[in-house]
């Protein structure tokens, strides 16, 4: 019975709804029902029926508790299980089990809105930390794309068009070829290209108190939504190409992707784009949102210095080779991989900027990395236990991109990140035992030694789980697991904010862009030593989870409750202008998920509630000294004919540099002051989807996502100067926040609703999709169009974006 419970591949009773076999969350051969961790599987049919436009939308439709938001300096940000950082370094993104995270800076980034999903057999999502299998980074969860493998000779061609109210358009086209080769092997090719104009220029609006380049504290700041420079959902061209070769127990997989995200839809509009800097009184008034505005007021101050046209480009080349064989009847799994990455920030070409008088920088950032990995796993199979043990070796080379560039604003001597090499060596072991036919014990340990953790002896991740089988239909699972996170290399090394244009770390205070004349939004940055940077500790997450699965005939119910701790939190701190890690918070997470499949009908329902517990926000801060600078004063230097501006430090009575204390508190930057809710994660999320087939030709899909208010923002929106809970250094900012309407974002429910129709013929398929049905087709105060910003500093970054407008898409697929 023990052997039957643990290792025999079984088709579950709702086999038409989901495939229980998973390759995520364990070194061993377990299915969903007998895995000690919480896993979601999105099937190829669900991917196709939903018409999800990119990976982030797909995950939000189906995965309990998953949500995505925006950071205008990075793009899409993922959130799940109490985790949402300013970059996606707390989630691990895999393709066929191969880690795709960039280790230099951005984490899970390469395919967040790439837009190609039809090559996927399924998507596996592990909710919560899983450091045992994946090492550094799996704080919030793990997402694994499983691509289709060869089954039979087959060819397909897919073409799709999209539009927002017939005013803009876009196309997504791809092909696939599967063919058996004469040598007994098989090859599968896949490729695609995507282009879109998005919702239209200046249709997105930003609500609340938009951060820079909006002049936030002006008395004439608009109290309604402010139009953005660009268009939501637009891209000048994403593409993908992959090749999958299989023969016997060998597999060689290559994947090339290029993703471009335009950020203009997240930056406030500059009505005088042809004028560099602030326009003077001679500039003519312009129309903004149907109103004539003057350059002498608020709108004259929204100069973004080109940042409002940022394009985030990431090109990734991945090669994976896997071989499975047996030694004394026990499996050995070997895999190796190479990743080559170019990361760039360039300037979007917008017609309104064609007449800009001065020569512009076209490439704001260029850097890259190379990653190499070799992993070997040996598995011992017995009737009453299974043990896996192995090693995982990784080498990271940071600095130059694929074109040999590592530079800021095309200045070859100003690197984005230091040219360094890191290594990570890990040993791991996981075992499953059956002390009783109804009890399965899963336990494992992993030791990682990383370049930046050598001084503390590395760190250990572990897991201990028990699955108790009540009967053939249900079980109970109790799991403890942990995960460490090393962050990214730019946290530990001198980066673009620390290097000067001569390639040397600053020894004196400076501005982020020292060649631009300072204004009220310019932040003085103090120099920081390499020793201070490398004093960062790995972030840690711990989870204790009790869950259960009930499965009978056409019904599956999964319920889970967990208690979680995250400590030594990595977060951007605006005051020190770098990533710091300090503090901890605790939260409870409850999930209920139902899947029902009978005949022509499939239904999925889930709800997740997250609440902070045992967290006193005010105790998680740390006092630090910072220099005091003179207001509206700066020094200048001429270097190679270029003027550089430097802040002036205020001197005290003794003639020494004046300092003041400030509080670093990354916990308060993501959690409400009362310690009960998250600022940037919806505390309650309900989701539902329905698939119904009228006959074998025609079917309908619909899905709903309900976000029950961002309750953590109540402190920001409803500021009360008499409330002692509010931190003293926040109070002067909170009174500005309460001035600008947030559409009652903390109280009202946001609903995202899609619907799709499919007509399947013998050799073709036609699909019609309607996205965001409740949202308008142009900007308004409608709450259902809103996406929220992941805040790294809630004092000044409180943006809400009207981003999800109603749109339509038609997809046609031909099979040969």
UniProtKB/TrEMBL annotation:
<protein>
    <submittedName>
        <fullName>TonB-dependent receptor</fullName>
    </submittedName>
</protein>
<keyword id="KW-0998">Cell outer membrane</keyword>
<keyword id="KW-1134">Transmembrane beta strand</keyword>
<dbReference type="GO" id="GO:0044718">
    <property type="term" value="P:siderophore transmembrane transport"/>
</dbReference>
<dbReference type="Pfam" id="PF00593">
    <property type="entry name" value="TonB_dep_Rec_b-barrel"/>
</dbReference>
<keyword id="KW-0472">Membrane</keyword>
<dbReference type="InterPro" id="IPR000531">
    <property type="entry name" value="Beta-barrel_TonB"/>
</dbReference>
<keyword id="KW-0732">Signal</keyword>
<dbReference type="InterPro" id="IPR036942">
    <property type="entry name" value="Beta-barrel_TonB_sf"/>
</dbReference>
<keyword id="KW-0813">Transport</keyword>
<dbReference type="InterPro" id="IPR039426">
    <property type="entry name" value="TonB-dep_rcpt-like"/>
</dbReference>
<feature type="domain" description="TonB-dependent receptor plug">
    <location>
        <begin position="32"/>
        <end position="142"/>
    </location>
</feature>
<dbReference type="InterPro" id="IPR037066">
    <property type="entry name" value="Plug_dom_sf"/>
</dbReference>
<dbReference type="GO" id="GO:0015344">
    <property type="term" value="F:siderophore uptake transmembrane transporter activity"/>
</dbReference>
<keyword id="KW-0798">TonB box</keyword>
<feature type="domain" description="TonB-dependent receptor-like beta-barrel">
    <location>
        <begin position="385"/>
        <end position="736"/>
    </location>
</feature>
<dbReference type="GO" id="GO:0009279">
    <property type="term" value="C:cell outer membrane"/>
</dbReference>
<comment type="similarity">
    <text>Belongs to the TonB-dependent receptor family.</text>
</comment>
<feature type="region of interest" description="Disordered">
    <location>
        <begin position="210"/>
        <end position="230"/>
    </location>
</feature>
<keyword id="KW-0812">Transmembrane</keyword>
<keyword id="KW-0675">Receptor</keyword>
<dbReference type="Pfam" id="PF07715">
    <property type="entry name" value="Plug"/>
</dbReference>
<dbReference type="InterPro" id="IPR012910">
    <property type="entry name" value="Plug_dom"/>
</dbReference>
